[in-house]
Amino acid sequence: MRLYPLLPKDDRISVELNKYDRKYRLNSIALKVEEPLISLIVLAEGEEEARLLPFMVNALNGERKTVAITKPKETRYSSIRFIKLWLNSLKTLKKLLFIIDQENEEIDKIFDNMANSLNEIGIQISYEKGIENRVRSYNCELGNIVFEVIIVISGVKNLNSKKHKIEDHLLSIRGVSESMEDSKEYWKRLPQDSKEEIYERLKDRDLINKHFSSHMKALSELE
Fold first, then answer.
1. Which residues pair with 130 in a beta bridge?
2. Which residue of 3, 35, 43, 174 shows the fewest CB atoms closer than 10 Å?
3. What is the DSSP letter of 160?
4. Burial label, 143 (beta-carbon count in 10 A; 0-12, 13-18, 19+)
5. Where does residue 25 fall: left (phi above 0), alpha (psi -120 to 50 degrees), or beta otherwise?
6. Which 8-state DSSP code applies to residue 112?
7. Is residue 93 a contact partner of residue 37, using CB atoms and an 8 Å limit?
């Protein structure tokens, strides 16, 4: 799998995707598209996901298909409202994967809120499937368009943080055990060389599959 950003080259997310792909020689970014784009990854939170996705894609075994990736201006539940725009601009789109932080909410509540957000913009859910505790898929219909929405919720239950985010997984790799208010803010305060040490370790596929197991299962649904 390779990622094809649907964003301007100077957009912050595009910059981060390309920067980390090049720095760690992951070869996970597609410079052009030679096949219909069937799947889209939606970053419903901040920039850290853009730094981590090239590592996750690098760890996937399988065909080298191209998957679109974007980050809307709205975050969390509000990101759902852009689905109509994406379906209209990408006529071949069949699957959308949303990556969202748990924050301080219950997992089931997040899934319910995402499903309600789909309904609010006129999308009907014909079938719902739990893939894993933090991963759920919805077979959807919008008029005569049939597609699948997959949601993966970032966070590590055993990390002692009041707010659970994608940074939970990085701190778990580092072995952090102390309590904190917000894993994102804790990660930001770490020295840059400590962060780079963790990023370097993410080139290990076994490590990625262990600490980002939910994300890897969600991504495998796009294969």
1. 136
2. 35
3. -
4. exposed
5. left
6. H
7. yes
Biggest CA-to-CA distance, the chain: 51
> Mind listing the pLDDT tens digit for each residue in 114-138?
999 999 999 999 999 999 999 999 9
- Residues 16, 22: Cα–Cα separation, whole Å: 10
Number of domains in the chain: 1
Query: Measuring CA to CA, how many Å separate 207 from each of 39, 46, 51, 102, 199?
Result: 25, 23, 16, 22, 11
Contact 60, 216 (CB under 8 A): yes
Q: Which two tokens stand for residue 4?
A: 């094809």
Phi, psi of 176, rounded to the nearest 5 degrees: -70, 130
CA distance 119 to 23: 41
pLDDT band with cut points at 50, 70 and 90 for residue 34: confident
What tens digit of pLDDT does each residue of 196-223 get? 999 999 999 999 999 999 999 999 999 7
Residue 97 carries which side chain, given as an amino acid letter? L
**Residue type at 122 in one-letter notation:** G
Contact 60, 219 (CB under 8 A): yes
Q: Which domain holds residue 183?
A: 2-220
